[in-house]
Amino acid sequence: MLDAQEIDRLTTTVLLGAFALSVLFGAIVHRTRYCTMGAIADLMTTGDATRLRQWVLAAGVGTIGFGVLVATGCVQAADSLYAGTRWMWLSALSGGALFGVGMVLASGCGSKALVRMGAGNLKALVAFLAMALSASAAMRGIAAVARDRTVDRVFVSFDGPATLGHLAASAGGWPLPWTLLAAAVLVGLPFVLWALSGPGFINAPNLLAGLGLGGVLVAMWWLSGHAGHVAEHPETLESAYLATRSGRMEALTFTGPLAHTLDWLTFFSDRSQRLSLGVASVAGVVVGAAAHALATRQFRWEGFRTTEDLANHLIGGVLMGVGGVTALGCSIGQGLSGVSNLSLTSFTAVLGIVAGAVMALKYQTWRLERSV
């Protein structure tokens, strides 16, 4: 069993690793223009599926990679943040729809706001603050009460984790690790093949976006679920995942961590506000994007030109904060990390996010046509 000093050193290692991986994530997103909202908008307006294929490729790589980690015993799938026994379908759909509308109004999701902040965009800073404050309200404030009394009460409960792999293993009576790997390959491989089959898709930026971000996701799962796992914590004598707010294995997500970042900054002197993997990830994405923007001379200060633009970013940030917490994750948290676990709630949240984004984009198109 590790002693307290060894636990502290290992926690620091996990935090530094999460920061480094997130720096890479931020740099890749800025370099490749990876964007969930942009992927949906491109497909709707021009029929271009390039950024959609980037997203699907990253999800496929992450799914297969997570399956390999489980099959080789590096991580325990049931300990994932997305391995709850409840399929929160109504929360995922409604929260996802709110998030999808919000990310269109705010010109990108939470992770994209961090990347834009790193490149000098002050509009993204406003969206970040609005999203962080509303996420905090949705976790602990007035929005949390409303959420708990409505959509969170509608769910389907299972005996084990509500993921495709666990459900298949339970139904067939098959060995769990290898069933999870088989399910990951059956879902992830078609993702990868479809993405790579796009005309002209195979080039350096697209492969960097898909393979690079998928690889970062798998590395984060390994860091949190293997390197940061201790079988017996000296204080509790129980299994623990170091540096995580949930006490479970975590990967990339950018809703709750934005609120936690604001808490850490404003209550820094409070010893209970310990630095977490999520907060380190938020800082890393901003630093990574800033480093790439400065290195390529793309750093530009940008502010609001109209009050309508300001209002859109404020409203969009609020919708993403409330929606992301309600849906149990954002376009990265559910769209990549959760999907890599084959979580039913994650797939449902993605449907809600896409539906919300499509509705918001159609509304913007309608308004534009009316103003002509």
Written account of the structure:
This protein is 68% helix and 2% strand. With 372 residues, the protein is mainly α. It has one domain (4-371). Helix 1 (4-32) packs parallel to helix 12 (277-295), helix 2 crosses helix 3 and helix 11 (256-266) packs across helix 12.
Key descriptive features of the protein:
single chain, 372 residues, mainly alpha, two-stranded antiparallel sheet, 15 helices, globular
Uncertain stretches of 5 or more adjacent residues: none
Output the structural class: mainly alpha
Secondary-structure element pattern, one letter each = HHHEHHHHEHHHEEHHHHH
Task: Please count the beta strands (DSSP E, at least 2 residues each).
Answer: 4
Structure annotation, total helices: 15
Give the CA-based shape: globular
Average the pLDDT over all residues and give the rounded result: 95
What is the gyration radius calculated from CA atoms? 20 Å
| Secondary structure: helix percent | 55-70%
**Quaternary form:** single chain
Short description:
Helices cover 68% and strands 2% of the residues. The protein has helices spanning 4-32, 36-45, 50-71, 89-105, 110-118, 122-140, 142-149, 164-172, 176-196, 204-227, 256-266, 277-295, 307-326, 333-340, 344-371; strands at 86-87, 156-157, 229-230, 240-241.
Reconstruct the topology from this structure.
Layout: H1 4-32, H2 36-45, H3 50-71, E1 86-87, H4 89-105, H5 110-118, H6 122-140, H7 142-149, E2 156-157, H8 164-172, H9 176-196, H10 204-227, E3 229-230, E4 240-241, H11 256-266, H12 277-295, H13 307-326, H14 333-340, H15 344-371
Helix pairs in contact: 1-5, 1-10, 1-12, 2-3, 2-15, 3-9, 3-10, 3-14, 4-13, 4-15, 5-6, 5-12, 6-7, 6-11, 6-13, 8-9, 11-12, 14-15
Pfam families: Sulf_transp (PF04143)
Subcellular location: Cell inner membrane
Transmembrane segments: 12-34, 55-78, 90-110, 122-143, 176-195, 207-224, 275-294, 314-336, 342-361
